[in-house]
Write a structure and sequence with these properties.
single chain, disordered C terminus, globular
Length: 160
């Protein structure tokens, strides 16, 4: 997966090389320069972020889905955690492309999502999952998928 999902050489993504992680290895160890970049994307960078997400969905997601189905077939909660992490990464890139986050904020969030995903999977695998844990994680995955597919509300209303 690492070689197939390294997008550094794709011409359409050149505006964001060094701005967001473009490979699994870089995502696992985000360089400090990316974590300190307080700029927001320019229009060409926004287009490149969109191209990156489409490239990831068409190239890497099928590979990751096959990997999960093969190695975690009997652990549906692990698959749900991976889907939650993907939804979180998508929301982060949406906020970045919309200018609601800086590159530093987005990269810190991407780093936190990766750490949370790793920790959650390790906890589930070490302690064994209960039916209640599995149901709760699957419900969160459904909610995250629904949120990922719906546009954000324009102006959330506070509670009365």
């Amino acid at each position: 997966m690492n070689a197939a999902c390294d997008f550094h050489s794709r011409p359409a993504l050149q505006p964001i090389v060094g701005k967001i992680p473009l490979s699994p290895a870089e995502l696992d160890d985000i360089p400090l320069s990316m974590l300190a970049d307080d700029t927001t994307p320019t229009p060409p960078e926004r287009a490149a972020i969109d191209a990156y997400w489409h490239a990831w969905r068409s190239t890497c997601k099928p590979i990751k889905d096959r990997f999960l189905a093969t190695y975690f077939a009997g652990e549906p909660s692990v698959i749900s955690i991976a889907r939650l992490a993907t939804a979180g990464r998508r929301h982060t890139l949406i906020d970045l492309a919309a200018g609601r986050q800086t590159y530093a904020q987005a990269n810190r969030t991407l780093q936190q999502i990766g750490a949370a995903e790793t920790a959650a999977v390790a906890l589930l695998r070490s302690s064994g999952e209960t039916p209640q844990q599995a149901a709760a994680i699957q419900a969160l995955g459904v909610i995250a998928s629904m949120e990922a597919d719906s546009p954000p509300s324009p102006d959330p209303q506070p509670f009365p």
